[in-house]
Amino acid sequence: MGIQEKNDLQKELDEKDSKITELITQNTELESQVSDYKQNYENGQRNVTPQQKEPEKAPEETASARKITDVQFTIHRDNMLSAYNELLKTLAALAPTDPKLKEEYRETAHGIVETMAKRLKVYPPEIQTNLKIRTHTTTLLSAQKPSN
């Protein structure tokens, strides 16, 4: 490996480290926001007496809960996409140096992605059971007359 290749790899590594640091910072900030929203929500709940609580959520509470959910979804989505892109880069880097290992990893990753896609087709999944339910039919004897 030449000096230029090593320099290029070091530059690429430094860029990835920078991106990882940026994503970690972003993730930390988003987690902090989620924590703040949760804390504000919990503090608001402590100030509400049981008589004040109603089955229907107030519009502000629903909007706040939605915002928390949006932030959590964004964090997990971005982490998943980032990890997936890094996985693809790892596979691409392995292709010329160790194609057999690259293919083994690719097959494993492909299986994981297929399983994830199947689980997301309908989520949460319907409840399934392996119990067999027997149905019994009973017949009433029409010849029997009720006693008086």
In terms of topology, how is this protein built?
Blueprint: H1 3-46, H2 59-97, H3 99-121
Helix pairs in contact: 1-2, 2-3
Descriptive overview:
The chain is mainly α. The protein contains three helices and no strands. The longest helix has 44 residues, at 3-46. The model has no long low-confidence stretch (mean pLDDT 81).
Quickly count the helices: 3
* Morphology: flat
Poorly predicted regions are: none
**SSE succession:** HHH
Secondary structure tally: strands = 0
The value of Rg in angstroms is 29 Å
* Percent of residues in helices: over 70%
Classify the oligomer: single chain
Distance between the termini: 105 Å
Q: Briefly note the structural class of the backbone.
A: mainly alpha
**Roughly what fraction of the amino acids lie in strands?**
under 5%
Report the biggest beta sheet as strand number plus sense, adding barrel if it closes: none
Mean pLDDT score: 81
Summary keywords:
single chain, 148 residues, mainly alpha
Summarize the structure.
This protein is an all-alpha fold and 148 residues long. 72% of the residues lie in helices and 0% in strands. The protein has 3 helices and no strands.
